[in-house]
Each structure stands twice: as C-alpha cells, then as structure tokens.
Amino acid sequence: MTVTDWRTQFDHTDPGYSAAPYAIWDELRESCPVARSERFRGMWVPTRYDDVVAVAHDTTTFSSRSPIVTEYLAMAEFGVMAPPISSDPPYHTAIRRLLLPFFAPKPIEALRPRVVAIADDLIDAFVDADGCDAAVQFSQHVPVRLIAHLLGVPEEEGDRFRGWVHDLLEVGISDFATAMLALQDFFGYFREQMLARRDAPGDDLVSYLAHATIRSSGEGQSGNLVEASADEDRPLTDQELLGVVLLMVVAGIDTTWSAIGSTIWHLAGHPDDRDRLVADPGLWPVALEEFLRAYAPVTMARELAVDTEFQGCPMHAGDPLLLPFPAANRDPSVFERADEVVIDRAHNRHVAFGVGIHRCLGSNLARLEVQAAVQRFIERVPPFRLADPDAVTWSAGQVRGPRSLPLVFER
Ligand code: HEM
Questions:
Q1: How far is CA 273 from CA 139, 278, 291, in A?
Q2: Distance 248 CA to ligand 1 centre (A)
Q3: pLDDT tens-digit map of 20-38
Q4: pTM for the complete prediction?
Q5: I need a labelling partner for 170 at 20 to 30 A (CA). Which of 19, 160, 267, 399 fits?
Q6: Which CATH superfamily includes the segment(s) 6-409?
C-alpha cells in the first residue's frame, strides 16, 4: 500500500522512498522528528542527527538483538545470530575483539592490488562498448569477489551470495518463507566449508574462526544462542562461526555495492566532479567521505530493551526502531548545504558507518573498495552519462543503492 502520511505509515520498502528519500526525511525532521509507523510492527523512526547518534550510543535502552526490522517477527525470534552486529555487551565485546585484527588497516591495504585487478577485469568486458550497466556489470561484482576471496571460496560463487543477500534483506523482510530458504541454503553451504577448514585450515577468515577462541562471560545474551558458562577461553560454536560468516556476506556485499553504484550515479550526473577527480586524484580521500555522507547506504535497527520515553515518545520493551544513518547525514543543523554533494567538504562528521560500539568493522575495507574501484572506473571508462534517468532502479529496505544503472559513454 502506497504511503500517504510518512509520520504514521513510514515504510522503507515503499518504492517512492527508495527512489527519493531526501524530502521525506526533511519533512519528518521538521514536523515529527521521531515518527511512529503503523507498519513493521509499529516501528519508531528518528530522523535527526542528534537523535540517531543518541540511540546508537545507548546500548542499554536500545538493544541490537534485532538489527533488521521485519514485518512478521523480531529478528531475534528467528533463532539466527549474526554477531557482533546482533549482540549487546559483554558478548559483543568478545566477538568484536576477535575480528578486529582481520580488518585492521594493514591487512586491508594489502588487498588493494586485488581490488584494482577485479575492477580492471570487469572494465575490460565493456570499455570498448557504447555503454554499460554500471550496477549489473560492475559495482555488484567488486564486493562479492572480495568477500569470496576473504572467506576462501571461489569467486564464481558470487551469484549465490547475491541471491542470499537479496532474499534476506529485500524480499525476506516481508516474506518469511523466502528468508528461511535463503538461510537454509547459506547454512548448508558454509557448514561444509567450516568442517573442511577445521581439518585443513587455509589463510582465510573461515579457517581463522574455526581455530580461534574467545572469552565470553555469557551473561544470558538475549538474541545470542550461546549461553557460555564461565570466564574461560573457548572455541566458537558452529552457530557462532556460521553467524559471523553470515554477517560478512550480509554486511560486506550490498552495502559496498550500493556505495560504489551511488558514487558512479552521482558522477554520471556531475561531469564536473568526475573531471576534477580524474585531474586531481589527490582529492579522493576527502571526496570519498562526501560520497559516503551523501549516499550512505545503510540503515540499521534496534529493539527497545526496556520501557522508556525518548524525545517525548512513550516507547515499550520489544518495540522495533529503525535507525536511518543516511537521514542523520542529511541533517541541515549539522551539515551546511546538507543536500548538496561538495566533494571538497572540509568538515564532515558523517555517520555512514554508524557510531559507538557497533561502528562498522569493515570500514577500512569498504573505503578501499569504493575508492579503488570507482577511481579505476573513471580513469579507464570514457566520460559517461545516464542513458535514461528513469531507467535507474534503487534497492528497497535497509540498504539503498542503484540496482540498475545504464550508462552511455561519450567518445
Ligand atoms: C560502504 C560500505 C559499508 C557501510 C556504509 C557500512 C555501514 C555499517 C554500519 C552503519 C554499521 C553499524 C551497525 C549498527 O550500528 O548497528 C556497520 C557495522 C558492521 N559492518 Fe559495515 N558497512 C559497510 C561495509 C562493510 C564491509 C565491507 C564489511 C565487512 C566485510 C562490514 C562489516 C561490518 C560489521 C562486522 C559490522 C558490525 C560491527 C559491530 O557490531 O560491532 N561492513 N556497517
């Protein structure tokens, strides 16, 4: 049902929202900064920067046990964990600490040649044509191949990965059966990988997790299936390991795919920005942050752990809350010319990667992928424009980015 009043019917799967959310956020920030929707089990939706940040910091009131809002039941009730994103302290701290070395700046920077090689391989296939679909032929493949590489599985498994993400994050939030089938297929595939790496480890993330230990005090983690008993080191359970891998696939693919696609979409409509970046690649670090601010792809969710009042709203334990970091990034009280893309913006405290204890663990990897892939794209592909602005389609749900992006090359 099409939304007629965003204050009471907020729906992040509405096609109008995924095509153009900016005016909706502006209207809500001014008239009803914390909306309450009749949809998605009565979720709350803050839209101001300060409110989004306050919720993210208050992990006692706003639990991460259900980081995706679904129509039918709280994610925690699925019995599926995806730590650390689906957990609260102290368990969260233990799992996050385990993963940190894998995503540190040095090992991630070592992946740069791999990203450039993937980008070159993809560009080779269309650079001599009259145009391409930059979402279908380019942006979606970069993160899929990288994540496959990190998990130590063949890069050709990409189609399967993309299918899981689509079925879970887009279709699955309103369709329980599709979500369950995707999870079944995912767990079947990676259970085999896990068992193989226990016997014969490689230098990939699955092998690392299969042989790692954590110390978790196990204080009855709601949303986590593990109830560890003591303060002692222990290996990850199968469910924990598969949960972390699930998160890598869900958090690492369509997020980055969306950021790469949105950046190319912007450059297609702003040849002046494209020309500046080609002429002066030294602009990239600052420009990248601006693309991430303006086209932040990821909206997260929380679940009320207790009854509380927030900005005058009476919230109850169990209520879902949508946490739109992209709306915070467009708040004019924090960012001058918030709705403009200023590629040399000097002050940019954006929250595209979240804020607080759950801040994106993969941010070094995401930055590397977006910058290296798009830089290569604009260096090698002739000047380009949108073939037809109306032909561009955007994903629905908690991750937003172009899914079809037809371009024409201007030779
Ligand atoms: C442009 C791309 C990306 C964006 C915009 C993004 C955004 C985010 C955001 C907003 C969060 C905060 C979640 C919360 O507060 O609940 C998050 C968490 C996380 N992200 Fe990313 N992400 C991106 C790419 C990646 C990649 C490539 C990976 C790894 C392969 C990754 C792994 C994670 C993990 C593991 C967490 C959970 C951290 C925790 O709970 O402590 N992300 N991401």
A1: 19, 9, 11
A2: 9
A3: 999 999 999 999 999 999 9
A4: 0.95
A5: 267
A6: Cytochrome P450 (1.10.630.10)
